[in-house]
Amino acid sequence: MSAAAACPRRVPRPWRLESREALVRRLQAALVAADGPRGAECIHELWMRGEMGVNVDRALERLWAAAAASVPAWLPSRHVGWLPLAYEVAARCEATARGRSNLYLVLLDYADSSGDPHGVYVGATRHDPLLRLDQHMAGIRSSGSVRRRGLELLTGPVLHLQRISAGEAARIEGQLAEALRAAGLRVRGGH
What we know:
Blueprint: H1 3-6, H2 20-33, H3 36-48, H4 53-67, H5 83-91, E1 98-109, E2 118-125, H6 129-138, H7 144-149, E3 150-153, H8 166-182, E4 187-189
Parallel strand pairs: 2-4
Antiparallel strand pairs: 1-2, 1-3
């Protein structure tokens, strides 16, 4: 079985055909029920449709307040305007061989620079991506950009690029970094 078949292509979008009003009602119900996964799906769908950043941030705050223990790891904790683009670009990357390597994205803070306040680091590792982020932050085989500017993992766009062969991970890491750069994002890593 291929890695692409074994891993989801992207975060599921079960509410993609729902109206905005229906999504907001579903989100309200998820908040009342403290249902992190359901609330995350609703916020994610609104986000992918281009919901205003202030509304996404407000919904994220409310979800974390209501259901912190059950919010899935793939949902970022803050609004990133280009996240739908990152999903689109990463979805073009395909892996065919299973293995022990994982691609990961780290959200970088560029609020002190001109332009977009966020950038992205593209990496590949044989470790769990969260452990690898911790290593970066601790200075272990660290990228300076992640150590100084790293905010959080962006798990969702690369869910389908987990447990793939090392050779494919190295190839896709470079391709993904270049594709995100070509799409206009501030990119580090991808070597």
